[in-house]
Amino acid sequence: MKKFFSFLGMAFLGGALTLGGYKMLFDEPVAQNNLQNASLPAIQANYNPAFNEAAPALNAESVDFTLAAERTVNSVVHVKNTSTRTQQSPLDIFFGTGNGIRKFEQVGTGSGVIISADGYIVTNNHVIDNATSIEITLNNKKKYEAELIGADATNDIALLKINADIDLPYTTFTNSDNVKIGEWVLAVGNPYNLTSTVTAGIVSAKGRDLEGNGNIESFIQTDAAVNPGNSGGALVNTRGELVGINTAISSKTGSFIGYSFAVPSNIAKKIVDDLLEFGAVQEAILGIGIDNTYEDEGVRVGKVYYDEGANNNQFKEGDVIKSINNVKISKFSELKGQLTAKRPGDYVDVTLEREGELITKKIILNKRDSYVSNALRISVKDLTKKEKKKFDIKGGAKIIQNANRTLTYYGITEGYIITKVNKKPVLTAAEAIKNIQSSNFGNGNPLFLELINPKGEVEKFVIR
After folding, report:
1. What is the mean pLDDT of each run of 10 residues along the chain (464 residues)?
2. What are phi and psi of 431, to 5 degrees?
3. Which CATH number is associated with domain 176-277?
4. Is the pTM of this model over 0.85?
5. What are the residue ranges spanned by the domains of the chain?
6. What amino acid positions are annotated as catalytic residues?
């Protein structure tokens, strides 16, 4: 028995020695950091954070999107457009049988936002472009045929109208100038006719101009997920107010990869008001050219197209525009966005830097009457009443600048009036430029022009 306890004692001792040796030889020491008790070096800061007292209250609450979603989902609709296309058989092209032309229907879809109880709907122009019929599906699955009231291809906004037997839920516009970078927003769309879908994000930037886009624009950029089918949907703040119309995404795949862009509500509302009142967009200008070589903050004035004092235009070459109506202007797209939201005849307070001094001028906006075709390399303007009477025509587009060698070769100079583009009559300079752009001239397609020369004679040309 004594031997047994001796062996047992030796076994315990041997085990303890073995365990101790293992811990000494193989086990790494573990360092524990207590963040609450750790002593950190004190660093003096040069600012006093103003949110210190409010921080606990802010952290205690999360942002609630439910109110905005409830106010918006039923006012966002599915837009289906049907267009009729023609296709010619290759055999008919070669043999001229005349039997190879067939018609077929092409369907496109997108979203829209009801903006009034009586059924006015805003969407993107590209959603309904060339449509022969437009069908609206509400969030409750009811369907209506829509009438196209008007559209603006430049800013990609269109206005539709449906007639329902009830007052419809709608979303109200708010001032998009008040939207802050970092502010939470919801993108609400009705893609694939699934009923309204909501995604959330923040405002990433304002005054964005997309590269490769033919127009200078002033988009609101967000990281709220927007996919094909969401075009024309609503971008709303956390109060459910409309701050923009979702229009585009930046993607190489066609799907959302982190950036989406919306037409600001101020621009969309102004276009809607113009279409309802005038049937066309009234574009306002300052009557100046821009110095594109200027790279600092602001927009520098190049050429001034009006004498000082004319049309209340008080710019001087070299002035740098810093703000419009107290809204900061850092680049041209921001200036363009402010002007697009205004009408000719509106007064704006323009803050300028002139010879190192900041001054504010009250400027009346002029009506744009001249347009440029980059493809044809001409500038055209609307006709005056005197010119219409002189040539006994209802309208047209007068060439005021020509840098096209082909036109010069044919003898077409400044003073010629374009009356038809590809056999379609044009009454304004804007119509002429729009028809030239839609003809895809410059990519191998010929352009048919009918003009009136300064003598009043009609001339017809095919430009290649």
Report:
1. 50 49 42 31 34 37 82 93 70 53 77 95 92 92 93 90 94 94 93 80 87 65 84 93 87 65 94 90 86 91 69 81 94 90 92 94 86 86 90 92 90 94 90 84 83 94 89
2. -65, -40
3. 2.40.10.10
4. no
5. 75-161, 176-277, 284-367, 370-463
6. 126, 156, 231
